[in-house]
Write a structure and sequence with these properties.
By secondary structure, the chain is α/β, with parallel strands linked by helices. It folds into two domains: 3-218, Rossmann fold, CATH 3.40.50; 227-292, Winged helix-like DNA-binding domain superfamily/Winged helix DNA-binding domain (Arc Repressor Mutant, subunit A), CATH 1.10.10. The protein has ten helices and twelve strands. The strands form two sheets. Strands 3-2-1-4-5-7-6-8-9 form a nine-stranded mixed beta sheet, with helices on both faces. Strands 10-12-11 form a three-stranded antiparallel beta sheet. Strand 2 (61-68), helix 4 (72-84) and strand 3 (91-97) form a beta-alpha-beta unit. The protein is elongated, with a radius of gyration of 20 Å. The chain starts with a helix and ends with a strand. The relative contact order is 0.11.
Length: 293
């Protein structure tokens, strides 16, 4: 596996999501917290995004909690970026050395992360304890990006996250790292999916939908190949019976790597091909139209 390429794509995805999340969170609340627990070099890239919010930070508090076994000079560089941003005391960095499981829950309590908008990025190499990830749900609303080793079982990490999805990052037929996104409320999941398909492709890195039994590799594109989604939607209809267009869009958004809009495009092709039927049989393919297989 191309480690550098995987690292680059994770960093770009984080940056793209932070660029959307930070201003929205600062408009919503006077205190905002970003938690970064990563063994890689993504912390400085994240800090630069936060530093770009200097105009919005004035009169508010934007805090970065950085956790890791090897902070050292990296912690000093994060503080320097914050100081040079012009945001003054509104942008702060707190660093806590140590492993994620040991320090993250303690750090969240220490900075008063309860009931404030919070985003956590966890990529520390080893899989953290599910309870550690669940601690991030203290935020309101809370969101998290979690990187797990290949073939890690993700069900234990769903606790506390009503919105939850995952994608496999791969460069070959071998299992790749899993990128998990969770949120407690709002349209965060749609925003993550838009960022997911907007990143540039690095050295052949592709996505794989963990729910696709054929393990099809999908090129990163604004209009991704629909094959895996088509198979998963048909299998879902076969298991559950008729479903509305809204339910199928929700299924695609929450249970696959695809977006709700991708589900609509696939449904149009399935209806036109006669693979599925719709009721009513004519008119716009609105959310209340019932699809049967």
């Amino acid at each position: 596996m191309s480690y550098d390429a995987i690292t680059q794509i994770k960093q770009e995805l984080l940056v793209r999501y932070l660029e959307a999340w930070a201003p929205a969170a600062l408009h919503r609340a006077r205190r905002v917290i970003y938690v970064h627990a990563s063994a890689g070099a993504t912390a400085e890239a994240a800090m630069r995004v936060l530093a770009e919010q200097s105009d919005l930070v004035r009169g508010r508090e934007l805090t970065m909690l950085a956790i890791g076994d090897e902070l050292g000079e990296a912690g000093a560089r994060l503080s320097a970026i914050a100081e040079q941003s012009g945001a003054g005391a509104g942008l702060a960095v707190h660093t806590i050395p140590g492993g994620t499981d040991k320090t993250l829950p303690v750090g969240l309590k220490a900075i008063g992360a309860q009931r404030v908008p919070l985003l956590g990025f966890l990529d520390a190499g080893d899989a953290p304890a599910p309870a550690t990830v669940a601690a991030l749900t203290a935020g309101k609303p809370a969101e998290m990006l979690l990187v797990l080793p290949p073939e890690t079982k993700t069900d234990p990490y769903r606790t506390g996250w009503p919105l939850f999805t995952q994608v496999e990052l791969a460069v070959s037929d071998e299992p790749g790292e899993l990128l998990v996104f969770g949120a407690t409320a709002g349209k965060s999941l749609e925003g993550f999916k838009e960022a997911l398909w907007s990143v540039d492709e690095f050295a052949g890195v592709r996505y794989r939908d963990p729910g696709d039994p054929d393990r099809h590799l999908i090129d990163i594109s604004l209009t991704p190949h629909p094959g895996p989604l088509r198979r998963e939607m048909l299998a879902y209809l076969e298991r559950t019976g008729s479903r509305t267009v809204t339910e199928l869009r929700t299924f695609a958004l929450t249970e696959t790597v695809y977006r709700a809009a991708d589900a609509t495009r696939v449904l149009h092709t399935l209806v036109d091909a006669g693979t599925v039927t719709r009721e009513p049989s004519h008119g716009r393919l609105g959310g209340d139209v019932v699809i049967s297989y």
